[in-house]
Amino acid sequence: MKVVDPSGRTWRVSRRWMPWRRKAHVGQWGDVPSGHGLGDDPISVILGIFLFILIIPFLVLAVLVALELLLLLLVLPFALLGRMLFGRHWHVEVREGWEFAWETEAGDWRQSGRAIEHIAEGLRRGLVPWQAASPAAPQASPHPPGMGGPPPGQPPPPV
Fold first, then answer.
1. Is the residue at 22 inside a domain?
2. Residue 154 lies in a domain
3. How many Å apart are CA 124 and CA 148, to the nearest integer?
4. Is residue 98 part of a domain?
5. Residue 99 DSSP code
6. pLDDT digits (tens, 9 = 90+) for 38-83
7. Total domain count for the chain?
8. How many helices (H) and strands (E) does the chain have?
9. Residue 145: inside a domain, yes or no?
10. Which of 7, 17, 31, 68 has the fewest CB atoms within 10 Å around its CB?
11. Closest to 116 (Cα-Cα) out of 103, 128, 126, 127
12. Mean pLDDT confidence for 106-120
């Protein structure tokens, strides 16, 4: 669920489907030189080798991201089956934009859906995620967003 708080920041509140968060990120690829238009003279060969060396890290990153996505696709059916058969709890995660901010364990499918709506409503009112997740969330944040710190064991929000 996408939410905009009173200060204009965009938050995303959703269930985390996999047992872990993704680690590999492609990031900003930018303009990668393609090597088009190289001639057959020695300077073009040197430039071609130089461009190839520059492209190698991007290729390695692309292969790592593809392997992680393949692993996620292979594990997804087992993760879903485990959640359904063994009652594994769902995790609700909050991201500011696309950057991870906070997560909490929310219970079964129905409870996690209610937690998503509750946290999203708190974020709309200007609360930080861990305050929005509390059962009796206050009407307004007693301190500016990002101040005050999360509950023990939780990472701090992005600044």
1. yes
2. no
3. 19
4. yes
5. E
6. 667 788 888 888 999 999 999 999 999 999 889 988 988 888 787 7
7. 1
8. 3, 4
9. no
10. 31
11. 103
12. 89
The span from the CA of 13 to the CA of 29, in Å, is: 26
Mean local confidence (pLDDT), 12-32: 65
Domain carrying residue 119: 2-132
Residue 21's Cβ-side half-sphere holds a number of Cα atoms within 13 Å equal to 16
Q: List all residues 6 or more positions away from 75 whose beta carbon is below 8 Å from its beta carbon.
A: 18, 19
CA angle 120, 121, 125 (to 5 degrees): 115
Helix, strand, coil percentages for the chain (3-state, nearest 5): 40, 15, 45
Task: Extract the tokens encoding 57.
Answer: 């890290």
- The pTM assigned to this predicted structure is 0.54
76, 126, 88, 96: which is closest to 13 by C-alpha? 96
**Per-residue confidence (pLDDT) for residue 58, from 0 to 100:** 93
Spatial distance between the Cα atoms of 140 and 67, rounded to a whole number of angstroms: 44
